[in-house]
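Q: What does the assembled structure look like for these inputs?
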Amino acid sequence: MTITGKRRIAVQVLLLGISVLGLACRPGGEDSMPAAQDSVAESSPPALPSWNNGAAKQAIVDFVARVTDPANPDFVPEAERIAVFDNDGTLWSERPVYFQLFFAIDRVKALAADHPEWKEKQPFKGVLEGDLEAVAATGEHGLLELVMASHTGMTTTEFEQIVKEWLATARHPELDRPYTELVYQPMLEVLDYLRAHGFKAYIVSGGGIEFMRPWVEEVYGVSPEQVVGSSVNTKFEVRNGEPVLVRIPEIDFINDKEGKPVGINSHIGRRPIAAFGNSDGDFQMLEWTTAGDGSRLGVIVHHTDAEREWAYDRDSHVGRLDRGLDEAAERGWVLVDMKSDWTTVYPD
Amino acid sequence: MTITGKRRIAVQVLLLGISVLGLACRPGGEDSMPAAQDSVAESSPPALPSWNNGAAKQAIVDFVARVTDPANPDFVPEAERIAVFDNDGTLWSERPVYFQLFFAIDRVKALAADHPEWKEKQPFKGVLEGDLEAVAATGEHGLLELVMASHTGMTTTEFEQIVKEWLATARHPELDRPYTELVYQPMLEVLDYLRAHGFKAYIVSGGGIEFMRPWVEEVYGVSPEQVVGSSVNTKFEVRNGEPVLVRIPEIDFINDKEGKPVGINSHIGRRPIAAFGNSDGDFQMLEWTTAGDGSRLGVIVHHTDAEREWAYDRDSHVGRLDRGLDEAAERGWVLVDMKSDWTTVYPD
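A:
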């Protein structure tokens, strides 16, 4: 179990996440749900019905019109219409911490009966006793132990089943809803809208590629092939005549920041023409995407809605958005103001 | 520049290749080309016209009929109809050595003017003087130097252009045809046939992923997204305000043998239902594919045609097929006999 270089950064982000697990609170209470839909009265064209008419929606619609019109100099053939979407904070919520961290914690609890030694050993002891400050105190190494204990040691087929079962029963600790209901309705509409116009949508997330694949088809309509994410190494073995891929406790790739263009190149092999993110972890993905020739679309979802979701940017421990806010205008990227641009946040 | 573990194996294969560069000869002369088409007289149904009616063709057609018939218990929904194809020796020829090695050699020659030191330094000196025995004598380390010098140091965009330009002008040293004409007509028909039945075809090759992507769409109709291959690491940089991905001299992944199921899982995230290979480097890919539930298809192209292509298997330095020959029958894999199953080898 080793960790070096850029991998440190990602683990630090996770660590910051867990360090506030016990402290974080959602500014708006659950009683502010469901969304107020304060703009439903205005005329809603069929495209992007949960988007208020405004600069953000217009920029998306205009871009799609340009690249799909064969008479337009910016026309892009269908095969090259690749759009990439960050997941945490862009397609679903990410507060108080990345949902995958809740998975790791729940998984450690589920496995505890087989690991009596965890009762006395941090960071597991802290997880089992609900003492997340003690977990955080174990630092980067402790967090990596937690992730590896919960995400490796099984076959890929077993892990897929574990993720599916967890998602079918787990509920967000503050909102008391299944995590898969905490997806953004306006972004589901963007996915549909782009696909209806011949785009192929990929998820490009710092989250685990095999944590996402089991459910993204049902939730987002994105096939498992179209997921790029962080990964552990896997090893091919034949067990009792059956070939298996075993997830082993080594980080293979961290798909965040400078890693996102690398992951895109590795998995897709084409430069996208549209990219949607929400944090500075997506900066290089938007930079790479929008530096290509022709018309390009870069979109940042800005979390401005403390009533219906959460409001955060520059100082956030999760989904920090700082450089993106400073440079969006000069780079021609679209800033989506969740509070004013979206008529609703989550699906009904 | 480091090389460890399974990476050694792949380099050794390459090394074996280069060691016979000066020695290898094609059993049949060029005058035996084009293919004799000795079976054109028999009745040709529209599907797979360059395949003689026989067990191999029947197995492919029967499999496709089963998995695409909604009334059949083996029916597979379209989204799960993933077929994987090895490239070297399965979709195009691989003699006297993998064509990518010719690319490396031509590239070193093209770069020599900028590297006067290469005149005195092996393995470059050997390449420039046509002394391939001297190249081989530099061993694994020397060959890796050759690959890295020819495949890294440039941006991904530059490399794509270099590959395209090479393929547009390079010709096979014995057959005197562009490499992209040395693809197997019967396999092009399999690709078309599967796609016509709702399959998504992926190339899963030990060759470089970025060596293949620039041309597979035009030659095979396979999009760059659907290529899995070996890779070097890339690094994101911003140069004069322009984001680039630089190919650096570190091996990232070798997509061969046990690596193929790993690469498939990483890039596709679904288990294929059909796999086509030709050598023991494809064994685990076929094993992984055909171990899945329901109807599965494993196909090995056996190089039996010394007249129209090359004949080789157990003792070959390239495309060695030994275990696959021994176990195909018991595993239910289809052995394609190129000589008797194919009416033609290359496209006209």
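The first strand of chain B starts at residue 82 and ends at 85.
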